[in-house]
NAD(P)-binding domain-containing protein
Amino acid sequence: MNEPRTILVSGATGTVGRHVTAGLTSRGVRVRALTRDPAAADLPAGVEAVPGSPFDPAGLEPWLDGVSGVFLMLPRFADIAAVRETVRVIARHAEHVVFLSSGAVRDGVPATGQSGAIARAHAEVEEAIRDSGIAWTFLRPYRFAANTLHWGEAIRAGAPVPVVLPHVPVTLLDERDIAAVAVHALTEDGHAGARYELTGPEPLTPVRQLAIIGEVTGRRIAWTERPAEDWIRTVLGRAATDAEVAGMRASIEDSASSVTDTITRVTGRPARTFREWVSEHTHELTGPLPELRRDDAGFVLASTWRVADPARQRAAAAAALDDWRDRPWPPGLLAHSVLLGTDGHTLLHYSQWTDSGAVEAFRRAGRTRRNDDIDAVVSGIERLTATGYRRYRSAVPDRPIEPGMVVLVSFATESAAVGARFVDALLTRHPVNTGERPPDGMGGNHFHLAVDGSRVLNYAEFTDEAAHQRVVDTRLRAGDDVPGLIAGTPGLTPLGFERFLPYGTRYGRG
Ligand SMILES: NC(=O)c1ccc[n+]([C@@H]2O[C@H](COP(=O)([O-])OP(=O)(O)OC[C@H]3O[C@@H](n4cnc5c(N)ncnc54)[C@H](OP(=O)(O)O)[C@@H]3O)[C@@H](O)[C@H]2O)c1
């Protein structure tokens, strides 16, 4: 293939297209990215973002000037006639089109005879491409791992995840692998006329997929079965006929666990596993906060940093988490979370370790270098406190919330026994144990005892600041029960509370 001139990437802000754009750019290929809103598109430096859509052939034509190859995808199945016209326009200008089709398309069956709307729409575009005379490569992916992102809402709220066909194994594709195949096809010879059936490396039931998300992020995730027909109708549209719904169900059950080696053959590296995909998407699946009640966390290190202003606060948080990308993950570190103080200056690092020995080993081996590297990115970080804890007891209401604020309430204690007695007494008064309705917007209270006996820490989750303020205003006034208990506990001194906004968590490599 002659050196590609410019590649036009449609769907460039989307799940696959974003990685096609990045992959081409990193190979030094000029990319013109098609998007309905260039101003909002967050694309790599050097990419030319142009307005348009595969549904607007006339609007797209000017952007084909000087373009040798096109990555074409179907954002929806709505206006296939427009996409057929787009194909004809592309064929007048470019030499090669790589089309993101679907594993549902069957060869030897005309578009009208394909089973289900998804297969029909993609087969129609494939036909249009073949008829146009342009060189083509069809990518026919099976299921995207990204489809599981819709579980995130339930996981983050601590609710059971509605799962379709929970025991039917399916292979799930990492979008980076689909994009890598597209990049090879767009930049090398030998891919014209190929129909690449793309799958993930191993069949996994949805129940096992949830277990893997749980293993990577330290959670036990409950699930409930969602009727398959109900889900299929949301994919195909409410107007889908019973036969179409049944057809799609059968095709999921038939083909979902097929495994091909196409990704390895084309890219030279094996398809990424679902576990690898989860490790890159923990934020979207489980949110920015850690699972406080994980059983394997025998030691918690809570430390605080102070910086000059909110911009540096965010920069320091990003640097602290991004730094792990280039560094060996310390043995025994399960999760490292960063939260931002609402004062605009403080950062809280909450890290869960298997045991204190693992922290000591990290302090000896790698901590100074890590701090130096972060200081090189953000100047003026003051490292204030670092206290070792173990989580002692938690009280979590049955009604789950998605926490948007964490409040750390601290007490000085004369000994660990004083701290434990106080927490035990407090928990007998807690709504979780009295049967009273928990305050709206209040989540878990997780009580930690400092390993040196000097502190009690309550890590309290709330939906937002207003929910915490309501608790302060209605339950923590002088004369209320809890302030009375605090005042009446010898050896205990309240140190006040600090409010934090969740920022992010990195986990061990799963
Ligand atoms: N999910 C699966 O399991 C699976 C399996 C096989 C095949 N596929 C196929 O893969 C394709 C989806 O790829 P993807 O997930 O990378 O896409 P995507 O992220 O859903 O969307 C890509 C881009 O399309 C643009 N877009 C969205 N709605 C649009 C509209 N109404 N009109 C014009 N542009 C619109 C958006 O870009 P802008 O906002 O920047 O314009 C969006 O970023 C579909 O054809 C699907 O059938 C999916």
User: Anything to note?
Assistant: The radius of gyration is 27 Å. The chain is about 35% helix and 25% strand. The chain has a mean pLDDT of 94. The pocket of NAP is lined by residues 11, 13-17, 35-37, 41, 53, 55, 73-76, 100, 102-103, 118, 141, 143-144, 147 (CB under 6 Å).
